Request: fold
Amino acid sequence: MSDTLNGKGLALVPKTDAKQTLKDFKSDQEVRWCPGCGDYAILAAVQSFLPELGLRRENIVFVSGIGCSSRFPYYLDTYGFHSIHGRAPAIATGLASSRPDLSVWVITGDGDALSIGGNHLIHALRRNVNLNILLFNNRIYGLTKGQYSPTSEIGKITKSTPMGSLDKPFNPISLALGAEASFVARTIDSDRKHLQSVLREATAHRGTSLVEIYQNCNIFNDNAFEQLKDPEIRDDITLRLEHGQPIASASKAVVRAANGGLDVVPLAEAGDRVLVHDAHNPDPSVAFALSRLDEPAFEHVPIGIFRQVERPAYDTLMAEQLEEAVAQKGPGDLSDLLMGGDTWRIG
Amino acid sequence: MSDTLNGKGLALVPKTDAKQTLKDFKSDQEVRWCPGCGDYAILAAVQSFLPELGLRRENIVFVSGIGCSSRFPYYLDTYGFHSIHGRAPAIATGLASSRPDLSVWVITGDGDALSIGGNHLIHALRRNVNLNILLFNNRIYGLTKGQYSPTSEIGKITKSTPMGSLDKPFNPISLALGAEASFVARTIDSDRKHLQSVLREATAHRGTSLVEIYQNCNIFNDNAFEQLKDPEIRDDITLRLEHGQPIASASKAVVRAANGGLDVVPLAEAGDRVLVHDAHNPDPSVAFALSRLDEPAFEHVPIGIFRQVERPAYDTLMAEQLEEAVAQKGPGDLSDLLMGGDTWRIG
Amino acid sequence: MTKQVQQLDRVVIRFAGDSGDGMQLTGDRFTAGTAEFGNDLSTLPNFPAEIRAPAGTLPGVSSFQLHFADHDILTPGDSPNVLVAMNPAALKANLGDLPKGADIIANTDEFTKRNLQKVGYDANPLEDDSLREWRVHAVPLTSLTVTALEGFDLSKKDAERSKNMFALGLLSWLYHRPTEHTISFLEQKFAKKPEIAKANIAAFQAGWNYGETTESFSVSYEVKPAQLAPGVYRNISGNQALAYGLIAASVQSKLPLFLGSYPITPASDILHELSRHKRFGIRTFQAEDEIAGVGAALGAAFGGALGVTTTSGPGVALKAETIGLAVMTELPLILVDVQRAGPSTGMPTKTEQTDLLMAMFGRNGESPVPIVAPSTPSDCFDAAIEAARIAVKYRTPVYLLSDGYLANGSEPWRLPEVSDLPDISTEFAVKTDEEFQPYVRDPETLSRPWAIPGTAGLEHRIGGIEKANGSGNISYDPNNHDLMVRLRQSKIDGIDVPALEVDDPEGDARVLVLGWGSTYGPIAAAVRRIRKSGGKVAQAHLRHLNPLPANTGEVLKSYDKVLLPEINLGQLALLLRAKFLVDIISYNRVRGLPFKAEELAGVIQDVIDSE
Amino acid sequence: MTKQVQQLDRVVIRFAGDSGDGMQLTGDRFTAGTAEFGNDLSTLPNFPAEIRAPAGTLPGVSSFQLHFADHDILTPGDSPNVLVAMNPAALKANLGDLPKGADIIANTDEFTKRNLQKVGYDANPLEDDSLREWRVHAVPLTSLTVTALEGFDLSKKDAERSKNMFALGLLSWLYHRPTEHTISFLEQKFAKKPEIAKANIAAFQAGWNYGETTESFSVSYEVKPAQLAPGVYRNISGNQALAYGLIAASVQSKLPLFLGSYPITPASDILHELSRHKRFGIRTFQAEDEIAGVGAALGAAFGGALGVTTTSGPGVALKAETIGLAVMTELPLILVDVQRAGPSTGMPTKTEQTDLLMAMFGRNGESPVPIVAPSTPSDCFDAAIEAARIAVKYRTPVYLLSDGYLANGSEPWRLPEVSDLPDISTEFAVKTDEEFQPYVRDPETLSRPWAIPGTAGLEHRIGGIEKANGSGNISYDPNNHDLMVRLRQSKIDGIDVPALEVDDPEGDARVLVLGWGSTYGPIAAAVRRIRKSGGKVAQAHLRHLNPLPANTGEVLKSYDKVLLPEINLGQLALLLRAKFLVDIISYNRVRGLPFKAEELAGVIQDVIDSE
Ligand SMILES: Cc1ncc(C[n+]2csc(CCOP(=O)(O)OP(=O)(O)O)c2C)c(N)n1
Ligand SMILES: Cc1ncc(C[n+]2csc(CCOP(=O)(O)OP(=O)(O)O)c2C)c(N)n1
Ligand code: SF4
Ligand code: SF4
Ligand SMILES: [Mg+2]
Ligand SMILES: [Mg+2]
Reply:
């Protein structure tokens, strides 16, 4: 856990000595995504990652909203809650803030998290509830059969936008950073190793970690992330973010721009101006600038952990207040409470 | 309108030659805020600013949510809609995108806009509907008598948080920039001149303009912005943002930091490193970095227009599609539509 | 060999296969051919909520049922005469609905050991004796298709894809359907891939020829065109008819249509349809959620548009607060609820009538809203216009309660003459000499003026706080509040709705079957059966649920017994019992499916017999 | 001069002034003194939605009414015997409620020309003859206060602020209230500002002395302590009692309380109260909106907490979707709705009973939810425990329907012994030898196991899609859906609720007055009046609205007439009519105010007379 600030993410969750394998995390439910869907790869990556945590299976909970991606909990043999559209962060907030002994995950899609659920997402982020949020971004509404989503590119032709969509998409990383997130990362369905390395840090982080996962929907938005998978160009356009390392792809590098922002230049020209990634910078501004590098789209895409800073988790603070209240005045006594006001006796 | 990119904000709204004064914009309703409330100053500033626009009064609409601030529309003799909590941006989106001939304003509070209404706000911003959103930020829930709000500082003691609030507040400017806003500004209730100068640019901007107004609630959160009003320190901590001008207060200046971010240094030390403000920079990263300068609070506060870039407004694009559809296939004919499928005749 | 041709008056076919097998398309094309041929028809698509559940599994089965006849019919049929089963899952999932003696056309190629195991068949039912009570036609549809396409430059997989067209060809032969339309349809659909177009056409024709030549089918069937009322017809689904109705309402009201909506099954297709008709000046706004959808529609209505929002299931719950605001601000608004099986997420692709009481009461405070419910897919057109008429005339949100069955089901629709459509236009308020009062009421309708921004001299403020009647100023006056609560109620109670019509041919029935919404077809079909067998029963169907027609109580009380079948636990019954103190007999099944005519006929007969 | 002392059995006082005049505090203190003295009492605060509307205006008037007596009383009183009017607006706004002959104590200092004009008085009513039918005591409260505080180091403005304490002192003298409590209260409240504390105490004493010495008051009144049941009492408002009830439910169920809430009038005080008792392990979460509030509560319930959400008005509408999810997932959850005047924003500070049908039906699909309604402020305590008992035992969301009148009204409460409170604890599911089935049902209650995360071997998944009974797997099976719809309904229908008790002392009444919720007090007071005057009437009050007590129908049918007063347009009446086909007589007034006993007595008498 080299990059981990504190590694306390799951400190309160009971561990097991029993050896676990991928199989322990497979439920008996048949997986029901379209053949070829990127969700399969993510599921396999998560199932094979979980044993590494060494947690008691019963202390893991997956909470999801509604969407293709939100079916995820059914396929994991942990506790699970397939809730309603957009509300998973709220439901998970109640669970995680009252049960610090649980590892609580939120599974959500770009529609679920950023359209109907946008408000709960940004509030969870600023509160820093102890949650791992995996946002499956396929830039489309899968389950409702292919309308454009808040991450679809402008001009997208879909069933609901036959002449093209009009709205500028959200950049989930920028939005999260604007919402005071303490942990923000991006990875991709097809790169299991990277995906798992991000999950490793996300689970080690105590607080809300938002992991955007580029996910291919081969039915309604096939090849949305093709450039990042294309062996021809992939290494040139992928800027890997690793804390303490220069930010560069095979051929490009990130440097400071004259106007206070960031620029991408040919690696050869960069020299020692290459920006070294500081994921732990308390100021999210550089992380934000990094998140803007892929505007308009996919010329150079930062992948990895944009931001990872320590901040007390909401449930910790909440628990501390309860403890403090007891420390100050002793545990609550119902009889005392009732008798506590101005009372008088009759008879 | 020196700083205005296009000045097209109200190009489609009918003008009047009639001379207007503040009085024309006063409704017959008694103003019902607490004596001393900052809302009075904002109301007066808006009422005395509106004549400047020279619009037909009947083409101006104020839409609000719920909160003390949201009573604003009642006091203006224009069209008004005092709607429900948090939903004003959604309602205004329907109005503005179907009526480009209107000047549509949204009046909202920090609770209304950022708590219950957060999602509608960020979506309005990314869509760039032609709206002027005035966010009265008093960092408290006024109307419900003083609970902490999403902009209240951590540890705030209120009726609902007797041991102090736990959640990190939103920075409305950062959030808006993370949500792809094309126009973002901050001003303050007590500085009418500045407030009006910001409104001037906001109305000239076609698209969504978000104006955060620091507003004093003298009943539940008095003196929240005292530093910015205190003649002793005000000029030292206020960093005025003016496009094309160096960013500095009486004694401090903003410069680029070594790590790619921004720093505030004593003016004397800054020399020619002082950052020149570029509100029109297509990349919001520097604006974002500026929005972080006042973290944790009020050591140096940027005031003015953070960002002001041209981007097609949602209603324009929508109208263009309708026109294009007509251009391509002629205006809709109901009879043709009904007969348009596979039909057959009987009898 | 000349094959025997048998005449039938009606047939029910069900195509069933994997989600990826193209059964909906096959059904659609068969329907188009049947419509073109002139039969009356009714359809029932049935598909899983998953986009494409794993191949070969029971949850992945998708089916399409079609009923066609030489006379007018009312339902998609209780049980199929023919089942086309593209794989073992399709057979297993549908066999239960198949009456003994029906035909089964099974694609033997898919009855592999693996596929059989997937659905729990120990042995191949086509080979053991288990299907002896049906007439099984074992056809290797896949391999026949691949063989037929050998000359094409296609991978085997691509060739196999055309097996649904082979099946369509076979069925088209079996029922003497015309073929031209399907061929030109395929040419158009694959205009950009001519090789695929040709292959599909070839598969289609091979299917036809297979029927013509193989011994497996010794009889083919003819169903004569129906004697429908003269006119121009097209086949239409409820969602499409509803969208067209909204467009017509926009034209007939001279108000630009603004749709604020968030996608949700089974309402999404209305959004899709409307977004294709921008040349009517229609704005479709895909909102960030249901709340924003209805909010934007209300904002547009304030600006003088015909504001519409469409949704289903949990989406309805989310709109409640804003509907309350629309009640308070007394603005026109149309709320389309395509009811689906609940509660909560429920069964998104299944039908139900369980939102009636939600529509009536699902808001804080006393907030009455009129409710209109279409009865058949094509009736969605008229019901939409009627909802708009009420909304505009009475300045009120109106609920239009469709359901999943109407939405996706289809039937031939005799096109109305545009000149016969009602004029539902209204007048915006204009400046007069008097001071403008936004809550002054029209004495007839009790509606308030619709004064839209841009009108000089009518500047005013509305909102969700209680208003003084007349001036519209904020008012906390107790008596004003009581007055306003009653005025809002009286306005809705006073809406002009046509009288409830009773179908009681001889006027001597003692039992009335009442219904509302999509149960019309099965109820009417059941009533026919009863009458055919000499029974006497009256039928009435409510299109207006709020307010009820003025004569409703009278009608109910003029029968010994009133039977009310509903796909809920008795929601309309509750309203009628409360209002008229009539001991209505409810029949309720909440299975996510429409009633069957036979089932209802049995229930009606029981009620008659218990007299 | 020794003044005359008159004995009274009951008095109704109303303090009225500007929002900034501290009338609520004054009323609270008078109430505390009265409680201490041992009278029975009941209070009715009434304040504007604005925080502090412009001084001296009608909308800015805030009032506090207190009814106290030497016997047990049931309401805050129909009309005041004394009005304290701190300014002309307060006089004007309240005069209509004042019976002729009542006392008016008016603060003459505020009857300036400007203030009179502000509320439309042409002349000073204290000086012209217009108040001749009342007993007016013109007292320059402000200047007397300022004079009394001359020795203090206070600005004039600060001194003037104490005028409410002067008024309190005067009234305390007038009704022989004890003074110690008020003095120690002021010392505590202003502990950090001793000068202010002393000034307030001085003003209070000056008011007392003024009464004692001035000629303006020749009589003072004594109301003997009431003969209430023996026990320890405290005065409590409905919101506080409700919060205490929730805490007690947490203790008695051994479940940690989790409140997810979003502030809204008049429910916010429950959030405020609960957030002060963290040492009970109570977590209060101020959410970003109502949806997140109920969502978090449901999430916590999944984790084994006693999940609660509190709201009012439009907030209720927003929670509907999540309540549907709670119905589907069959988890315990308490939904507190402090009903306020609607629809939409309505009149936030006013009371109403208009959310009953929303609670019953306000969700998509068939989603039954039990409903419990407290009848008096202190009953909110017991009703909260009862709601929790049902939620926990039956694994269901439960609606607790309070209202604005109960929330802010107060009355003396005889404290229960903690040992007498019911044990409402439950068992979480534990691993057994059998495979765990999350939707297997307890045969008695039909509830499913509550298996919380952290329990090894019970890993399972729940959600909003229809579940197979037993296994809990997703199921689209039509018959399973019908079964589940009925099981969910049966579970609620089968909840054990106590029988409806009827108060019919001689057992020969022919008319029954039925009520629910906060109308208990006025109805019971009206019934007393009728009986006092020799009339016969029976009374019954429903605490359980869903399911209804098993004997409800029987009770209704055993009277010739059933009168049901409701502060809505007849919502419970609708349910009872539908269920029992009884022609209930509704009496409805929706004025944002509780009924008056006199008003109801009149209505009851009319019904008796029309027999
Ligand atoms: C309240 C509500 N509104 C709408 C829907 C319909 N709906 C289900 S999933 C979905 C969007 C799915 O998109 P996304 O979150 O991107 O998930 P994906 O299917 O792409 O994984 C919508 C609109 C719903 N189930 N509930
Ligand atoms: C749906 C709904 N939830 C809650 C409320 C109660 N409420 C009214 S205003 C408000 C917050 C006000 O805060 P803010 O937006 O900051 O406005 P301010 O009063 O401070 O100007 C709340 C919670 C409401 N009216 N409607
Ligand atoms: S529709 Fe797209 S996202 Fe959904 S399961 Fe299929 S491929 Fe995956
Ligand atoms: S409570 Fe605060 S924000 Fe509201 S009117 Fe009073 S001073 Fe202004
Ligand atoms: Mg998606
Ligand atoms: Mg505020």
User: Anything to note?
Assistant: Residues 233 and 415 of chain D are 6 Å apart (CA to CA). Chain D has four domains: 4-223, 234-420, 427-496, 502-609. Chain D touches chain A through 71 residues (CB under 8 Å).
